[in-house]
Design brief:
Number of helices: 2
Largest sheet: none
Strand content: under 5%
Oligomer: single chain
Number of strands: 0
């Protein structure tokens, strides 16, 4: 099983929040606490440590579900 990691919320009708509290990764979210809509917005605000934190949360969530990542 592969893991699709996401740092943007590209679908306006389906906004996406980070897995962690948005206040712990403020560079990844807009003023409403959703992931940025575009890669350009993300690039303008990104903090690499926060990216690592969020991506680790996403991978951990998959592992905790019982799926084996290959």
């Amino acid at each position: 099983v592969g893991v699709h990691l996401s740092l943007t919320s590209e679908y306006p009708k389906l906004p996406t929040r980070p897995l962690g509290d948005p206040s712990s990764t403020p560079s990844l979210v807009d003023k409403e606490g959703y992931l940025h809509r575009s890669i350009e917005d993300l690039k303008a605000a990104v903090n690499v440590a926060e990216v690592k934190e969020e991506l680790n949360r996403q991978i951990d969530r998959v592992i905790q579900s019982g799926l084996t990542i290959t």
